[in-house]
Amino acid sequence: IKIMDGESEKVIYYYLNKNLQEGAKVSEKELESKIEGINKKADPSISLKEVSIINQHGLLCNSFKSNEDIVVSVLYECLSTVKDLRITVQIVNEENRPILITQNADNPDEISLYKRKPGMYKSFVTIPANTFGDNRLYLSLHLDHPTADYLIANKILGFDVEFQGYNNTQHAKFGKAFMR
User: Fold this and answer.
1) CA–CA dist 121, 70 (Å, integer)
2) pTM of the full predicted structure?
3) Closest-CA residue to 97 (of 126, 67, 125, 137)
4) 124-172 pLDDT, tens per residue?
5) Long-range contacts made by residues 174-178, C-beta under 8 angstroms, separation at least 24?
6) What are the Cα distances from residue 125, in Å, to 11, 16, 102, 113?
7) What share of the chain is helix, strand, coil (3-state, %, to 5)?
């Protein structure tokens, strides 16, 4: 465990950003050191393989216009039969405070995946265009298999949103809001 000592501002910045990965994708190897929570190491039931942020064309991206969809892709493996897996995507601010939270259970089609057999799975979250204002935002992720594993990857990717305004109107002072 690395312990940081020094000027308060630098120490706070280090701890708030210790998991942050540059770019729009974090791989399994990179995730290993970033995952917190409870995981039955001897016999885990889930494994997080990859998290990425992509644009509406399916390309890795970490810079968006506010009038574009933002897609979060989560690749994971069920190592045994898993019931009631909860995948929670959080869009957070620089202090890892939630701005928007969504969970796979929010999607009525997920009921067909209540019970997952061993294998690889990919889940997507689409954040619709015109949700966010002009900001730097971050992605945190939780995978919860009740009574077994609870994986937490806080503030692992960052992305920028540039406010575009509506109806050809751009007022900068209103574009800075987290959500529009």
Assistant:
1) 20
2) 0.82
3) 137
4) 999 999 999 889 999 999 999 987 888 999 999 999 999 887 666 655 5
5) 174/133, 175/66, 175/133, 175/134, 176/133, 176/134, 176/135, 177/133, 178/93, 178/99, 178/132, 178/133, 178/135, 178/137
6) 33, 24, 8, 15
7) 15, 45, 40
Residue recorded with tokens 């889940």: 123
pLDDT tens-place string over residues 81-131: 999 999 999 999 988 999 999 998 888 887 777 889 999 999 999 999 999
Decide: helix, strand or coil at residue 23.
coil
Pairing type for strands 82-83 and 119-127 reads unpaired
